[in-house]
Amino acid sequence: MSITEVDVRQPARPAPRRSMPELRDRRDQLATRIALGDAGAVERQHRLGKRTARERLELLLDEGSFVEVEMYRKGAGGAYTDGVVAGSGTVDGRRVFVYAQDFTISGGSLGAAHAAKIHKVMDLALATGSPIVALNDSGGARIQEGVQALDGYGGIFRRQVEASGVIPQIAVVLGPCAGGAAYSPALADFTFMVRDTAQMYLTGPDVVAAVSGERVTHNQLGGADVHGSLSGVASFVHDDEDSCLADVRYLLSLLPANNLEPPPAVPHDDPDDLRPALADLVPVEPNRPYDMRDVLVELLDDGEFLEVHQGWAGNVLCAFGRLHGEVVGVVGNQPRVLAGVLDTAASQKAARFVRFCDAFGIPLVTLVDVPGFLPGTEQEYGGAIRHGAKLLYAYCEASVPRVQVILRKAYGGAYIVMDSRSIGCDLSLAWPTNEIAVMGAEAAVNVVHRKELAAAADPDELRAVLTAKYTEELVHPYYAAERGLVDDVIDPAETRSAVARGLAVLRDKRRRVPARKHGNVPL
């Protein structure tokens, strides 16, 4: 039978008529079903103390601002969205791109379609010069998709490196983040974690037990407190998702959209810059501790700041805040912890913070009260020289406006590393309590006059005399200023106004650097 005969004898039935209202209704029903998700899976997520991906995006973004991409995409498993909700929205009216892994669908595991959606929003974020926020809650690579899942992770990592220093990247770990997936938060500029529900590690407890015999829980191996206080992977640790995502919004309010835009400024209407409390907060005696956070409260607008890595390397403090409405990054020694010495962890912490601020045009204020580097074989064997060189490199490379304030002691190599004039600080200010020297006066006397002290009838009396003389001649408050290494010795009460004036003078600073592919950071 020919085709013509079929057409003549059995004419085709007319296609059923479809109305636009019907098509719209079907589309709306499908979109609603996708958005609501599987009721049982959602309930299990809530029982774990976790919000769903869409609930998290509602907390993070301005109301009604989320625009989703590829909602109807399916992966190998056949589920819509393939376990990740992706798109863009606004935070305080400013555009950000986001993706939130959906643990209710295949445990949020990453397959080819899942990865392609993440790649898409990352590409859009870079193309538009917008920050990207990743909400991680995933069981890891989808085993059923094999190497395609691994290829998907590689595409994420490559894009993160390409975007580094161009747009801010924020990772939020709200559930498991294991194996290769853990490298994504590690490559981000800032990583948030929530206690009890978030875990991040390369190899899980079962593998650890099988290889080493060591028995650990998921939280003991890679919980939020582990990464917030021991490894330094987590920049911020929170007790719950609500406060965590609120702080993500706060951090975004302090960051520029990209490296070509200035940090967001706000109107400043506080005419009173005198802070007489500063003279009482910091003891004159160089060995008495105090909390550098109290200094930040007096220095910054409204006494507000956001501290990075608060639980890790507490002997140095890194924080964002505003001064006269302008965003600044503050690095300060913390005398309450290890007397404020620099060690391997503190050097790494401060170096990464300095490099971020420099990449995104955020001026740096360095508050110095440092007795030196932490001595000991553990530090030396742990690479104190190499890690200290990271901080030195970061400051030397930084081209943003840089103001140093020496509150009390600044001894030895640690003085140099804490943004001294010799490594490129633009403006160095000092309080009348400053002591800048190779080492403390008494230690210096013990070295320089050891023979005289050994032969003296009363070594203690001679030491006291020599220490007073050394202090008077070489460690007095104006010694560095007389030699041009300090620009001004200021009243502590005038610190806020002096730093603000200095940053205003430096606002249009430009620095030419030699042509090169990139420097070789001592990693």
Q: In words, what does this structure look like?
A:
Residues 270-511 form the CoA carboxyltransferase C-terminal domain. With 523 residues, the chain is of the alpha/beta class. It folds into three domains: 42-253, 2-enoyl-CoA Hydratase, Chain A, domain 1 (Alpha-Beta Complex), CATH 3.90.226.10; 277-438 and 476-506, 2-enoyl-CoA Hydratase, Chain A, domain 1 (Alpha-Beta Complex), CATH 3.90.226; 441-474, no CATH class. It is built from 22 helices and 17 strands. The strands form three sheets. Strands 10, 11, 12, 13, 14, 15, 16 and 17 form an eight-stranded mixed sheet that branches. It has a seven-stranded mixed sheet with strand order 1-2-3-4-5-7-9, with helices on both faces. Helix 14 runs parallel beside helix 16 and helix 18 packs across helix 20. The radius of gyration is 29 Å and the shape is elongated. The N and C termini lie far apart (78 Å).
